[in-house]
Amino acid sequence: MKILVIGTGGREHALAWQCAKDSKVDTVFVANGNAGTDLEEKLQNINLDVKNHNAVIEFCQNNAIAFVLVGPEAPLVAGLVDDLQKANIKAWGPTKYCAQLEGSKAFAKDFMIKHNIPTAKYQTFSNADEAINYVKAEGSPIVIKADGLAAGKGVIVAMTEIEAIDAINDMLSGNKFGDAGSRVVIEQFLQGEEASFICMIDGDNILPMATSQDHKRIGEADTGLNTGGMGAYSPAPVVTQDVHDKVIERVIRPVVDAMKTGGTPYTGFLYAGLMIDEKNDPYVIEFNCRFGDPETQPIMMRLKGSMVDLIQAGLNGNLPSETEWDNRPALGIVLASKGYPESSSSDDVIRGLPAIADQQGDIKVFHAGTKNGENGEILTNGGRVLCVTALGDNILDAQTKALATCGAISFDGMQYRRDIGWRAIAR
Known about the structure:
Helices cover 31% and strands 27% of the residues.
């Protein structure tokens, strides 16, 4: 069996690595992959323009691809799954219509209100003066979001009115996020603890993945600018069985039923970024139409069954309601490049990486922003460079193991958080 994974990040490395564990799989092609996927047994990087859907279709037809696993959001929002399906190629991921849950914050908020899914109150604006007047009337703290895709960085949690006004001017007048920020969603600030709730959905059946929590902010103790994610751990203690049941009943099932009833069934991964309040009630901060990054890395470390079997079951409309997980927690720490999240650095030599052969046990280094250099060197190639992931007897043990490996790796300007998992450890 041959599989094609679309994407270049840590999420795709983890998903491809997990798929390659299945004995039925001969090759996992990764388009376009990174230096880490290039090293893995049974993984093969290919140079493919994923924006050219005809080129993707032609590759699948020429290489007898069993199914395509679409990792990142942009190809989903662009309708790659729709075009693959029209060509009778199996693809795991939502259609262009369903992917609007991530592709447009305004679409997602309108959808949640229409289907009574708990979320923060909001207004949508294209005019900066109107948006600023709304902020002045509502007060701070308040949340400003770019409507479109902004690689996880288009969300500003403004603690003061001045921060909110600056964010609005950056997005609507300063064009900081391009087309993604030509419209903004301004939301009520929610108090509580965040969690990531990720499911596989086959149009009707729901398979919850292991729970997780990521750390969005660049600084320790969750301070500083929002990023695409500086680390994550699984499971998330805040998601008790009571919270889990509420999320399925109030959030996930309504999405699945509404899409099915509307004639646009949701198939693929669905990520609900949640705020859990003091009453243990979940509110949706955002939807993503794919697996989270860096949540994928610790979750894939804990998966005991076959991801290939689960995806094939999903494509056939018979997803199981549960699967088997390692009882041990897993924790991943992102090593980011100089300047991240406002900029990134490339071509810095990465030293101290453990060999693939030494990563068969409790430690795994997933690559994201990496590329091959000359003389066998591995170089940085983006903002989030690596995700050092470890299984442990408890969350502190997993953190200790991951930090020890982080300490052995170096590149110019490397930055990472040493407190990933602090909420779970504090519990």
